[in-house]
């Protein structure tokens, strides 16, 4: 099995922590909206896009990276 190098966790400043908390609140609101509305709703696509963008902001702020799929996994 191949080992994956892990970066040390990012230490957030108090400002970054506040931004991250706000992003999590926004994410919860978007998820709640999506649960309350059907995919036929005219704004559904917009809200899923916003959820995706919000998730990317959270990932970047936390210092995360997108996962790479290696050849073993593709088989």
Distance between the termini: 14 Å
- Distinct helical segment count: 3
The percent range for strand residues is under 5%
Main sheet characteristics: none
Fraction of residues in helix? 55-70%
Low-confidence stretches: none
Query: Would you count the extended β strands for me?
Result: 0
Rg result: 16 Å
Topology pattern, helix = H, strand = E: HHH
Specify the overall morphology.
flat
Q: Based on helices, strands and strand pairing, what is the structural class?
A: mainly alpha
How would you state the average pLDDT, rounded? 85
What does this structure look like?
There is one protein chain. It is flat and about 45 Å long. With 75 residues, it is mainly alpha-helical. It has helices at residues 14-36, 44-61, 71-74. The protein is built from 3 helices and no strands.
Task: Briefly say what this structure is.
The protein contains three helices and no strands. By secondary structure, it is mainly α.
């Amino acid at each position: 099995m191949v080992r994956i190098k892990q970066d040390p966790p990012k230490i957030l400043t108090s400002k970054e922590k506040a931004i991250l908390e706000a992003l999590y609140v926004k994410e919860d609101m978007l998820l709640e909206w999506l649960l309350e509305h059907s995919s036929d709703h005219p704004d559904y696509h917009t809200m899923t896009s916003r959820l995706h963008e919000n998730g990317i902001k959270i990932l970047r702020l936390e210092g995360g990276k997108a996962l790479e799929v290696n050849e073993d996994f593709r088989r």
